[in-house]
Structure formats: C-alpha cells, structure tokens
Write a structure and sequence with these properties.
The chain has 11 helices and 12 strands. It is an alpha/beta fold and about 270 residues long. It is globular.
C-alpha cells in the first residue's frame, strides 16, 4: 500500500479543507515547497498536489509554486484541480508534473478523457472521482453532477483510464476512517484500472484495513490531515517538531521504486 502525502494549495499556501468546504480551511504551512521537501525527507515516493483555487474556477496563484515543488523533488508529482482541457494538461506537464488528474472535465466531457489518454497515455492521465453519497461532485466539490460514481468509473475504464483516485467527500479531512464499502463496491466493478483511496484516514489502523482491499484493486492511499497532525507512530517526530533544523535538501536513501524519469506506479 503506497502512502501518498497530499499538498492542497490555496493562495500559495499549504492548507486542508474539512469535507471539501472552503470556509473550513486550516493553514498548515506557509511554504509548500518546504512542506514537499519534508515529506520527501520522510521517504515519500510520490506526491499528490491539488490546486484548490483552480479547482473551483478561480485564477490560480499556485502555478509557480507547483513548478518549484516539481523542481525541488526527485519523485513524481501528480496534480489535480482545474485541469479542464488539453491546454491545461500541456501547461501542467510543462510545470514538471508527471501525472494530471481529471475531475470536472471527466464528468462533463468524457470524450475528452478518451482523447487525453490517447494523446498522453494512461500513465500521464488519471481520473479523480469525488463523490458525496455516491453522486459525483464537480467544480471543486461545489456542484453535483447527477452522475453515479460507480457508473462513471466503469465508463472511464472503458475509455482507457487505468488509475482512478476516489475521494469520499463526507470522510475527507475528518480522520474518521475511509469508506471501505465504497472501495469494495467500486473495485468489484473494475477489470483493469487501479484505485487510489482518498479521504478519512486517521491513523495506522485505517492503513491496515485498506491493505485488505488489495483484491479490490486498491493499491495506494492519499493522506493529508492525519500526516500533518502526526497521527502515525512511525512518523519521524524530530522532522515534524524540529523542521526548521532539518536539512530538507538531503533526501532519504531508502529504497524507492521511482525510476530516473520519476515515474510512479501505474
């Protein structure tokens, strides 16, 4: 089970939202680049970045921050939020992002997903399905789409998508545990695509439960708040409590599956 730290960007800062609500924001770090380096020092092998400003259609102030994060790390970075067309995909890849995650665009224009996968490959293009009570949400989780999450996942797989990031919005930022039933249901309908779970992890016990879902195509988990609040006994407490004293440019020598081109697991 690959653990992927999340960095959510809003106004150039590293934040977390509670259940996707923009008015329930906690600022965890003023410098997202330093935050990214800290996760790398703690052995992160992939980083998940979300541009919250772009996700709800605002003009994003985060692009140069994203570029700086990609330049600072030796591991792949995947980006979600506000990627709506081919130009956006090209811009993200030019910033140094390895993989883009299509959300609103996938729900509204599924043919665009087929075209994007054909042009950039299924390794570079993934789909994010963010659901509330089984309904896919769009526009930064501010609108319902009327689409069923399972039906959308099946359609995306048929269009060549091989990586789906599934977020249960009701669990996101709560640390109350992931929606295991949703992953079982979704995984049982897929044949080729793999699932990245997102939302609700509060500690090590949740990782153990998620590890039991490997047979349901879950092979990775995105974690935000629980990592920021140091909920795992295996975390390097000195890194978190004394982060101003850590050499953030001295990355871990632990074994990694990353190849020289910074390609993550498919």
């Amino acid at each position: 089970m690959l653990v992927i730290p999340a960095i959510d960007l809003r106004g150039g800062r590293c934040v977390r939202l509670y259940q996707g609500a923009y008015d329930k924001e906690t600022v965890y770090f003023e410098d997202p680049v330093k935050m990214a380096k800290l996760w790398r020092v703690q052995n992160a092998r992939t980083l998940h970045v979300v541009d919250l400003d772009a996700a709800r259609g605002d003009r994003s102030p985060n692009r140069e921050v994203i570029r700086a994060i990609c330049r600072a790390l030796d591991i792949p970075v995947q980006l979600g939020g506000g990627v709506r067309n081919m130009e956006d995909i090209g811009e993200a890849l030019e910033l140094g992002v390895y993989r883009v995650i299509l959300g609103t665009a996938a729900a509204r224009e599924p043919d665009f997903v087929s075209e994007a996968v054909a042009r950039h490959s299924c390794s570079r293009v993934a789909v994010g399905i963010d659901a509330r009570d089984g309904e896919v949400q769009i526009e930064g989780w501010l609108e319902g789409s009327g689409l069923d999450a399972v039906a959308m996942a099946q359609d995306m797989e048929n269009r060549g998508v091989r990586r789906i990031v599934y977020t249960d919005i009701g669990r996101d930022g709560t640390m109350e545990g992931p929606n295991l039933d949703a992953y079982r249901t979704l995984g049982a309908t897929l044949r080729c695509a793999r699932l990245t779970a997102s939302g609700g992890v509060g500690g090590h016990a949740d990782l153990v439960r998620l590890a039991d879902l490997v047979s349901h195509r879950v092979d990775s988990i995105i974690i935000g708040r629980a990592l920021y609040e140091n909920r795992f006994p295996c975390q390097q407490f000195w890194c978190w409590n004394y982060k101003q004293e850590v050499d953030l440019d001295c990355f871990s020598t632990a074994k990694t599956t990353s190849r020289p081109d910074k390609q993550p697991a498919s």
